[in-house]
Amino acid sequence: MSRNDLDPVTLEILWTRLVSAVDEASAAFVRTSFSTLVREANDFAVVLTDKEGRSVAQSSMSIPSFIGTLPATVKHFIRHFPPETLAPGDVLITNDPWMGTGHIHDITVVMPIFRDGSIHGYAAVTSHMPDIGGRLRSSGTREIFEEGLQIPMLKLVRAGVVDDTVVAFISQNVRVPEQTMGDVWGEVAACRMLEGRLNELLDDSGLDLDRLSGEIRGRSEAAMRAAVAALPDGDYRYRLEHDGFEERIVIQNRVEIRGDRVHIDYTGTSEQLPRSVNTVPIYTFAYTAFGVKALLSPDIPNNEGSFLPISTSAPEGTILNPRYPAASGARGMIGHLLPVAFMAALADVLPDRVMAPGSANSSFTMAGEDEGRRYATANFLNAGQGAFADRDGLSVVSFPSNLGNTPIEVIEAGAPVRVLHRAVRPGSGGGGAHRGGDGLDFAFEFVGDTPAVCSFLMTRLKAAPPGLAGGDPGVVGRLTLNGTDIDPADHWILKKGDRVVMQTAGGGGYGKA
Question: Which InterPro entries does this one have (predicted)?
Fold first, then answer.
């Protein structure tokens, strides 16, 4: 099929309608969800694929990693449930990290979209759940069995009939089943909304999804290949260190540019750890590909075509390609380093476009009972972005994950805590010709009568985000309980009156001042 089959004006109109359809499904999920992770933190994504599982369009506010993982999950489902085994009204479900989003805390729901008796595409939604059982999410868990419920690739709904057994075993294994299953049913509602809107578009246009998606994917692929081909062939390397545990974690990449293809090889990266910072290949590719696209061709639509010129590899048994049953609940602590590691490798080639490393979001999770009510909450706190060649980095943002800072009112409503202060942490961004963004200074007091368990994910407490091109590093983060530094890899019991201070790191500066 030629990319010239549809004229540009018609294609733009249809593309806009596709995005609107996915965004409407996204809005339906937000309206029907039960947890603040969807409504406030934006920790979800909605994607439309064609019948082969190739991504066509995603919701505008999607998390970058999910844009890369969701289509791969659909393809895994297609292999597990071939089209001939599916029927209208089927809904598929999993949270397998290697098949899904990289950790069990996200549940993915996929629904085949039938038209004239055959599958024309798939609606896919994934979201971080309010709870998945097990130990609360932290970087200290040592294997996946500690992390909670593992849901293999199953049918949640069969030809429109809910599988009550699947619902029962999920509900039995999570702390807040009404919220967790509420979010799952919200995902199903979003898939059904997307099915209806897609069929309306195809009715109006007289096209099938294959023809439309082929046009979109072909144009995006051509644009990305042209962007890669504009770079000089060669091998470019960067080495980035992170906090680690007994010793520092090393991310070593080699960016190989050959014509219109780019391959990122992570040989030399640290071995996998008996901790939850391991990053499975599906997530490694997703955030690497995001970095490639953000640097080389940020304006073209996200779909299968824009990622075809990109490939990644990491030796099995390393932190970017761990063996099962590796824990991966805190995989973002490492995965979020990959976009800036790619950019830094090309700093000499594209010095005016790259950014210095920064610090990604942190979070705290709490579970317990308050006045007879069981609760489980997860709250996100953002940090400093690295500086650019032409501007300062942003303060208190979540790069690259696009998560929102959980509002104070939501934090206090979800658990018995009182927020003492939340402010930008001045001077935490690294100096240079352009400064890194500042981190966050946040403190809360536990006010519940019944003790609760609390866990933390915090990055850059030991290894500061480095500057680039002579810029200064950012200031490392800090975590204290009642004035004493504590290890975020542990779980902590909070009693009434306990006070926690979380200070997130600042981003690295760019260039000499």
Answer: Hydantoinase_B, Oxoprolinase-like
Per-residue burial over 484-494, b if 16 or more Cβ lie within 10 Å, else e, is eeeebbebbeb
3 in a structural domain: no
Pick from 190, 220, 250: which residue ends a domain? 220
Q: What pLDDT, on the 0 to 100 scale, is given for residue 1?
A: 36
Cβ(378)–Cβ(16) below 8 Å: no
Asked if 380 and 363 touch (Cβ cutoff 8 Å), the reply is yes
Average pLDDT of adjacent 10-residue blocks, the chain of 513 residues: 67 94 97 91 95 95 91 98 98 98 98 96 97 96 97 98 98 97 98 97 92 94 98 97 94 98 98 98 97 95 95 98 98 96 96 94 95 94 96 96 92 97 98 98 98 96 96 98 97 98 98 94
For residue 121, tell me if it sits in a domain.
Answer: yes
Residue 198's domain comprises 8-220
CB 154 within 8 A of CB 94: yes
Task: Count the neighbouring beta carbons within 10 Å of the beta carbon of residue 239.
Answer: 13
Mapped onto helix, strand or coil, the DSSP state of residue 344 is helix
Q: State residue 5's pLDDT score.
A: 63
Note if the bond before 315 is cis, omega within 30 degrees.
no
Name the CA dihedral angle for 344, 392, 279, 283, rounded to a multiple of 10 degrees.
-90
The confidence score (pLDDT) of residue 361 equals: 87
Helix or strand (DSSP H, E) at 234: strand 234-242
Contacts of 27 (CB under 8 A, 6+ apart): none
**Last residue of a domain, which of 205, 220, 235?**
220
Structural domain count, the chain:
2
Q: Could you tell me if residue 350 is inside a domain?
A: no
Residue 146 lies in a domain: yes
**Ramachandran region of residue 3, left (φ > 0), alpha (ψ -120 to 50) or beta?**
alpha
Q: Which residues contact 327 (CB under 8 A, 6 or more apart)?
A: 141, 142, 143, 144, 146, 147, 274, 275, 276, 278
- Give CA angle at 55 (115, 118), nearest 5°: 15
Distance CA 288, CA 67 (A): 12
CA atoms of 459 and 488, how far apart (whole Å): 9
